[in-house]
Each structure stands twice: as structure tokens, then as C-alpha cells.
Automatic annotation (TrEMBL):
UniProt KW keywords: CBS domain, Kinase, Repeat, Transferase
Signal peptide: none
Pfam families in the record: CBS, WHD_HrcA
PANTHER family: CBS DOMAIN-CONTAINING PROTEIN, CBS DOMAIN-CONTAINING PROTEIN CBSX2, CHLOROPLASTIC
Gene Ontology terms, MF aspect: DNA binding; kinase activity
Protein name, per record: Histidine kinase
Highest rank taxon of the organism: Archaea
Length: 305
């Protein structure tokens, strides 16, 4: 396979980046602006790239360039990144999306006890990423893997970043009903705070929905009960004492949906609904235990090293 000189590789990489973004023919001027080169330089390089079968050109005022399949192969990129696969975004430490997309993630030196290294194959402005900076990569489409890493090195010629992993997490694609507690304890609206306190203590739970004729009216929590005991108002009904209507989530909603809702509403539990009826409760602890499930399995006595 033909080898590219640095200028040819830079121009071809820029062409692919622009083409994947706009899904249309790319002008030489656009390539020049992206890589800070003169438009004439880009035009002078294109005949060689066309001769190698890496670029297709359309003449005329509405013409331009597009990468051939061979261009992806010579750069080690998956063909037609955005047609068949979804490229993975990159963010800086402030959460701003960078002009860079990751096309492959390769774990290296995974047996090192000091550091886990990841090699990122990327398209975009790699030179803008400072060595030593923190970046966030992901989520990946299927495994929903997110990686927080410190940039150790970069190879602009081959479109590669080497990062040391700081944290890494994958959120399973799973309906919330699979992890929710199905032992749903409800209270009637006229139950006193005192009796509700006894019930929550006996059942070992921190909250119970207030339900009448199948309709959810509110939520009584241990925080509500503690506040009312301090105020000497423990003879109130739970309906008068409840501080909020419970946040709900559909039983078939994804775990990630539940996490985002808890974060947005700044709460630690959601009432799980199915066909308009409450069927359980899901808490942050339930989600954490699901994330820790692989570690729990590996620690079982039956698993041998």
C-alpha cells in the first residue's frame, strides 16, 4: 500500500473530517481553512491523492472532493464513519465538545498496576489538545463507555492520542424494572405521621408513596417524618405532611434515563410505574449495586483465579 508524506496525510485526514461532518463534496478552500494552509497547496496535492485512488473529484462550480474507501483504509479508519457507526465525541474538562471524533479505542498495558493506557484513533484538530490536559471520551454507542483520561502524548501525523485512564464507567442498557425493588409499601392518605414512622421503620425503607384507589397522591419520607417530629406535628396525616409528589419513571425506561432524572431533579429515588400503576421503587443504591454486579460475581467463592 502506498505511503503518504505528512502533507498528504494531513490533507486527506482533513478531507475525511469535513466530509463526515457535512456528507457533501468538500472544497479545497474548506480544507485549507481547517488545516491553516493555502488553498493552492491543497489543490497541488490533490492530483497525487487522486492518482493513488484515495480521492474522487467532481469538476465545476458545484464540484469538490470526497474521500474514496481506500482513503479510510490507508489511514486505518472504519469506512464511512457516520453511515454505519456513530463516531465517539470528545469533551474537555469544562464539558465543551471538541472538534475531534474518536474512531477507535485501543487499551494498552492493561496489566500495569500503576496506569492503564488507552490509544485513541481520531479525526480532527489533535494539535489543539494539550499534553497533560484532561479529556472525556464517549459515550460509545453500544457499551456506553465513558473514559476520563489525562493526555500523555499525541501523534498528529497518524491521528492518535495516548491517554492515561483516570476513571472509566459503562452504563448497562437495561430497563429500570430489572433493578427496581418490587416490594412496594404504600400508605393511605389518612394514616398519621406517627404510624407511618412505625411502618417505615418496620419495613426498613426510607419512603412510601401515598396511594388511594390506585392513584398516587404523594410521597412520605423519613426526612418528612424527622422534620415533623422536631416540630411536634406527628399526629398530622401523611397527606398533610408529605413535602412532594413523587418523581416517577416508566418501568421500561433505561437505567441511564433514571440516572439523568435523579441528577436533574436532585433526588435519590423514583417511583416505577407500569400501565399507570406503581410497581416498585428504584434508588441510587439500586443503580450502584447494578454497576457493581460484575465485581460481586467475581468475588463469589465459586470463581477461581
Amino acid at each position: 500500500m502506498e505511503s503518504l508524506n505528512p502533507t498528504q496525510r494531513e490533507i486527506l485526514t482533513a478531507l475525511i473530517q469535513l466530509y463526515e461532518k457535512k456528507r457533501d463534496l468538500v472544497k479545497s478552500k474548506e480544507i485549507g481553512e481547517l488545516i491553516n494552509r493555502d488553498e493552492g497547496t491543497v489543490r497541488n496535492i490533490m492530483p497525487a491523492l487522486r492518482a493513488m485512488g484515495l480521492v474522487e473529484a467532481i469538476a465545476g462550480p458545484k464540484g469538490g472532493y470526497m474521500p474514496a474507501r481506500k482513503a479510510y483504509e490507508i489511514l486505518g479508519l472504519p469506512p464511512m464513519v457516520t453511515r454505519k457507526t456513530r463516531a465517539v465525541p470528545v469533551y474537555n474538562a469544562e464539558g465543551s465538545k471538541l472538534d475531534l471524533i474518536v474512531t477507535d479505542i485501543v487499551f494498552k498495558d492493561v496489566f500495569n498496576e500503576e496506569i492503564c493506557l488507552v490509544l485513541l484513533k481520531a479525526i480532527g484538530n489533535i494539535s489543539a489538545i494539550e499534553t497533560g490536559s484532561i479529556i472525556y471520551v464517549g459515550p460509545t454507542p453500544a457499551g456506553r463507555l465513558m473514559i476520563e483520561g489525562k493526555v500523555i502524548g499525541r501523534d498528529e501525523l497518524h491521528g492518535e492520542l495516548l491517554i492515561g485512564v483516570v476513571t472509566m464507567v459503562s452504563i448497562p442498557k437495561e430497563p429500570i424494572k430489572n433493578i427496581a425493588s418490587r416490594k412496594l409499601v404504600t400508605v393511605s392518605p389518612d394514616l398519621s405521621v406517627r404510624e407511618a414512622a412505625k411502618l417505615l421503620y418496620r419495613e426498613g425503607i426510607r419512603a412510601a408513596p401515598i396511594v388511594k384507589d390506585g392513584e398516587v397522591l404523594g410521597l412520605i419520607t423519613t426526612s418528612d417524618i424527622a422534620r415533623l417530629y422536631v416540630e411536634g406535628m406527628y399526629n398530622l396525616s401523611v397527606m398533610d405532611a408529605a413535602s412532594r409528589v413523587p418523581a416517577v419513571i416508566d418501568a421500561n425506561a433505561d437505567i441511564l434515563d433514571a440516572m439523568e432524572k435523579m441528577e436533574t431533579e436532585r433526588i435519590g429515588r423514583l417511583l416505577v410505574m407500569e400501565n399507570g400503576k406503581p410497581i416498585g421503587m428504584v434508588t441510587r443504591t439500586d443503580i450502584l449495586l447494578r454497576l457493581l454486579k460484575p465485581f460481586k460475581i467475581l468475588r463469589q467463592p465459586s470463581i477461581k483465579a
